[in-house]
Structure formats: structure tokens, C-alpha cells
Amino acid sequence: MLVCNKLLALAPQDHNPVPVPLGSGIHKTTGGFHNEFSYLGINLTFLIDFKYGAKIYSGNNLLSYTNGQHINTLEGREAGFIGKGVTEDDKENATTVGPQDYFYQITKGDYKIGEEFVYDASFIKLNAMNGGDKITSRIWWDSE
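-> C-alpha cells emitted (144 positions)
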């Protein structure tokens, strides 16, 4: 089994595609924070986890764009689509193309894995939180 921790795209360069790294699937930084508070018999414990520095590739979004089922493919169906970016002379792109041509190029065209489908996989989450109250035996089992 071949495992690769890099997301690669084929970038056309003189009709000889060269893999270009788009990111790593392995987090650069992983960590967590655990703390416990206790005051007057009431305690609170929590655990926070975080991971930072990885990229994730969404094949589902690629297929949704390819089939025209993603909400972002609605834009430009009537009047044409203007792609984000700049022209060769560093001016903002103003060329209108049909949405089918545009989405074909980013899903099946020259770029097999488009940057549109690579997302940041970093996160911070509250993993666990517990709270409690210490009831003393004098109050709980009061026999008088």
C-alpha cells in the first residue's frame, strides 16, 4: 500500500506536467490543554484539543462541481462566469467564460486537483467537559 502525505496537482509546464505540492495531510502541530478547577466542593474539568498545519482534499466537492450540483456552480449560469485571479499583465481578470468551460478546467482540465478543493484541516475543539458537586456525608446521611 502506497501512502503519500502530500497533496499534488499536475501543473502544465511546456506540455510536461510536473507535480506541485498543495499541502500536507499531516498536522505540523498537535496539542491539548487539560485543566481542573475546584471551589467549595464544586469541580469543573475540561480538555481542549488542537491540530494545526494540515490540508484536506475534498473529492465530494470536486464531483459536485463536475456535475453542477454544488451551490457555487449556480453563479454565472445566466450571464457567464468571471474567474478569480489576475491576467498576465497583473490586472484583475475581466474575461467572461461559460460556466461549463470554467468548471471543466478546474475539475477535469489541465489541473487535476484544483486549489478550490484543498481546505485547511486545522481545528480547535472542546473535547471533554465535566462538572460535579461534592455532597458531604453529613448532609446526605443526616440521621438527626
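The beta strands are 6-11, 18-24, 29-39, 42-52, 55-57, 81-82, 96-97, 118-120, 123-133.
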